[in-house]
Amino acid sequence: MSKREFSHSRPLESGSRAALSYFWASACDLRLLNFVTDTVLTGDYGMRVLQDALDGKDGYKEFDPVKLAKNEPGPRTQAFRDSRQEFIEMFLSRAVDNFQVYVVEILREVLHKQPRILSSSKQELTLGYVLQFDSIDSLTKDWIEGKVASLSYDGFGDLEDWCQSRGIPILVPEGKREHIVELIATRNLIVHNRGIVDERYRKAVPATKFETGKQRALEVEDLLSAKDLLDYVVNATDGAVSAKFGLPQVEVRAEVSARSQKRWPRRSSNRPQPETQSLPSAPSEGGGG
Question: Which residues pair with 215 in a beta bridge?
């Protein structure tokens, strides 16, 4: 996976309902990521303050939770680092899942808006199937749901080709398609093979340096760059698809902000807040593919 090249994680001011669902799910994951990181770092910092106070020292004054983690990591930070592979796997898998669900949901919105897109699909409808419905509208809706369900099982390349052949833009930056494929392959590896590289992964990602039978190592940078890229694709795609097909719009950024304030009311605090970029990580042992 590549270094971070995008910083478009903020959603569009307005977008589709699929975009709202995507960015809200992303916000929930990011909040949990920050909560766990903050708990680890402040736990060590609190123990350092207590220890220095009991020993009559004031060395803790030179640190805040982030500086302490970087310079004199405590036991919680060390344990966190020891489990970073599993931790990153969980959040990377959720990020990719969220992206794949978005693509399926935006397709559903497009097809419900313009069901004629499916007119070129080769599909035989039996008389028995047709007679189940009391209107063309209900038949069309069921047909669309069936097609969407079928597409959800296709690989990203096949899905992208299907969309392009029907004029539905999935906007991936030039040269980044292989990174999307790699992210999805990595997610599948985590879910289906405990993150151990197999021949299917190597076939999907021919340029990978990871060997069959070895763990697909991940670093914090992999997670952050993945989130940036996926957010960028969703923002670009949603704007293009919404404009082309006239999809109903909602105030995405304002709604995510309102939901966040309701779910996580801000509490006044003068204590420095660790950011995602401060997630403790040990020296790199090889990340990226």
Answer: 196
